[in-house]
Amino acid sequence: MRLVDALQYRLPVAGLVSILHRASGMLMFFLLPFIVWLFDASLTSEISYSRFVSVFTAGVGFVPGWFMKLIALALIWAYLHHFIAGVRHLWMDATHAVGLEFGRQSALMTMYASILLTLALGIKLFFF
To answer: Taking the model in full, what pTM does it have?
Structure first.
């Protein structure tokens, strides 16, 4: 199969959610050192917490603060999407709800919920 053929294929919403579930899991795995640093810097002491806050306002080194917030927002999306999609898969496994219509509707709800929650937390992150 050629790449051009693969790019023209229309993936159903449930397939897209499944791929994003895997991608969000990989993103969380690769950002795990950042997550550990966030946790450590926020809880160690008041001085480390003030450095933690300054990274998101002034940046660190040549990386500006807005970029660090963008990384944190990507992590927020990855966690929310992975959690919601995981609950969706658990629900389908527990109730044997594997019909096409339920799969499409639950995939759309997963996408909407993860995007809306990410937007809400992103507004909080960037503007408050």
So the answer is: 0.86
What's the chain's length in residues? Answer: 128
Q: How far is CA 82 from CA 38, 60, 86, 87, in A?
A: 19, 28, 6, 9
Q: Which domains does the chain have, with CATH numbers?
A: 9-31+62-127 (1.20.1300.10)
Query: Do residues 58 and 119 lie in contact, with contact meaning Cβ atoms separated by under 8 Å?
Result: no
| 6, pLDDT greater than 70 | no
Q: Phi and psi dihedrals of 60, rounded to 5?
A: -140, 125
Per-residue pLDDT tens for 40-56? 988 999 998 998 899 89
